[in-house]
Design brief:
Strand content: 15-25%
Structural class: alpha+beta
CATH superfamily of the largest domain: Winged helix-like DNA-binding domain superfamily/Winged helix DNA-binding domain
Bound molecules: zinc ion
Number of domains: 2
Shape: globular
CATH topology of the largest domain: Arc Repressor Mutant, subunit A
Largest sheet: 3 strands, mixed
Strand order of the largest sheet: 4-3-7
Number of strands: 7
CATH class of the largest domain: Mainly Alpha
Helix content: 25-40%
Number of helices: 5
Order of helices and strands: HHHHEEEEEEEH
Length: 136
């Protein structure tokens, strides 16, 4: 919790309890999650918090640059990211997102998201998803 407060202070965002809670449930996810999922997890923890409140908290974290948005063509999903500039390697099979730092210049294109298949999915010979690929 203290870590989140320091992080929010660094980003110039007031460390409200709601924001800290959202960071707490968002942090373990390597794959982007929807606001609905975060809300369900918070409710499961016994937090009396509304969906709109979760959405607002997430939006403020996005504005602060701490959380990145995925799935621009479908339902928005969110992931806690490093504040340092990076782009994303996104597995199109399991949705895993890996942050990649540095200036990767691809023929003049500044990469934001690069889609492919992650090593775990490439190694998945029998066609079933690897452990952790499907959300419980
Ligand atoms: Zn990111
Ligand atoms: Zn994968």
């Amino acid at each position: 919790m203290a870590y989140w407060r320091t992080m929010l202070d660094g980003a110039g965002v007031r460390a409200t309890r709601r924001r800290v809670l959202v960071l707490d449930v968002l942090a373990p996810h390597a794959r982007p999650v929807t606001v609905g999922r975060l809300h369900a997890e918070l409710r499961a923890r016994g937090e009396q918090i509304g969906l709109t409140t979760v959405y607002r908290a997430v939006s403020s974290l996005v504005d602060a640059g701490l959380v990145h948005v995925f799935g621009r063509t479908g339902e928005a999903a969110y992931r806690l990211c490093d504040p340092a500039r990076h782009h994303h390697l996104v597995c199109r099979v399991c949705g895993l997102v890996v942050e990649r730092f540095g200036e990767d210049d691809l023929d003049g294109f500044l990469a934001e998201e690069v889609y492919g298949v992650c090593p775990l999915c490439v190694g998945d010979q029998d066609g079933t998803f690897h452990a952790g690929a499907t959300a419980p």
